[in-house]
Hints:
- The radius of gyration is 18 Å and the shape is globular.
- Helix 3 links the parallel strand 1 and strand 2 (72-75).
- The protein is an alpha/beta fold.
- The protein has helices spanning 3-6, 33-47, 65-68, 81-91, 103-109, 111-120, 160-163, 169-174, 190-208, 223-226, 230-244, and strands spanning 53-57, 72-75, 96-102, 125-130, 133-134, 140-141, 179-185, 213-219, 248-252, 255-256.
- 45% of the residues are buried.
- The strands form two sheets. Strands 2-1-3-4-8-7-9-10 form an eight-stranded mixed sheet, sandwiched between helices.
Amino acid sequence: xxxxxxxxxxxxxxxxxxxxxxxxxxxxxxxxxxxxxxxxxxxxxxxxxxxxxxxxxxxxxxxxxxxxxxxxxxxxxxxxxxxxxxxxxxxxxxxxxxxxxxxxxxxxxxxxxxxxxxxxxxxxxxxxxxxxxxxxxxxxxxxxxxxxxxxxxxxxxxxxxxxxxxxxxxxxxxxxxxxxxxxxxxxxxxxxxxxxxxxxxxxxxxxxxxxxxxxxxxxxxxxxxxxxxxxxxxxxxxxxxxxxxxxxxxxxxxxxxxxxxxxx
Length: 264
């Protein structure tokens, strides 16, 4: 078989979304961010809404999001993504508006903006990447850092007596009346990526149908910040992160469907 036979259109089973730019990712090799960014592009392309979508990228590992997409992306100050998304959506209500935020941005400096946007039921999609650490700025403790987990700012491990407990913020947001959809996924296996893609599509369809705020959390690894190989980081995530942040739907069509704090 010739090489040209392999790459004929009829033999093609997968390719990069046409909405992805030619810019190479600056995410660390093995990180889940690249998979999530690509999956969002696939959903937007399949829905045919690229001319009507606006992404919001605040400070953090998401800061260069505008380099990777061929559709509109607006930069926001640290923690202010939901506030910027609110303004854009209200001025252009027919646009599909989504934020792409890390745990430091959404659950620390941006807690207030996130909470109140969700409480108002702003008709936006929030994509939340939770890797339990400040990945971009040196591996410091984040609100979602697990108890006992070591970071550069808690080298002996997170001590809840002085540093507080990990903030499991999405179940809190699910309690708000303005929130219609809350779900938590991962991208460490192909099956999980497919589940995330389905959830992202549901979130954008909710926005199309004006149902209120949709939140898609992705529990991801940070192999650089955790000081592990990509495989070891994924294994550690499964063994440790999923216990505190179990995967699954929390709220669907405005109804709570699972207690995400319950032991599993």
